[in-house]
From TrEMBL:
It comes from the Bacteria. GO terms for molecular function: hydrolase activity. Keywords: Hydrolase. SUPFAM superfamilies: HAD-like. This is Phosphatase. Pfam families: Hydrolase (PF00702).
Amino acid sequence: MESFIKAGHIEPSVIVFDVFGTLVKIGERRSPYRKLMKWLKENGRQPKRDDAKFIMSHNLNLAELAKLLAVNISEQFLQEIEHDLDEELRSIVLYEDTLSTLEELKKLGFRLVLCSNLAMPYGKIVSSLLPPLDAYAWSYEVAAIKPESKIYQSLIEQLGCQSSEVLFIEDTALADFTGPTAFGMSARLINRKNGQTLAEVLNNIL
């Protein structure tokens, strides 16, 4: 697959970034939400196809979500997964080139946006690590996940722009590439696992 698709012939004025695997990374994975879903299955709740969407499209903290899904969840287990969540959140760090790239793009006049599928506690931590940006399309606030069109429409409405003006920089083919391009946006994939930098992905812009 090509790493870049351009929508029409309009140069981007808005650059949208995914979060994990693009701007930030988790240093110590504890997977508290996965542990919660495993506990629910072991205690009689059958997994549903939209469980991941449910978690990422509700503006709830972990305890609120757990109690919504299981009225009989023990306080001991709840404390355990909340501790895991706290440790995981504390381990989130920016990639070395994140802040400098955002600063340079701002100087060049681009409007910058975050658009990500994630549970509410992660969005709050990421926001605290980054400077204020022009718009945010968090799945838990929009009540939709990528590649659903509702989440892309949300950022278009916030910015008052056309989809052809938007360039996505992300790391997952379906949610981060196929979804935006089907909505009329441009998209480029970044491969942090292979050491690719934002400057390399944005080589004709920076």
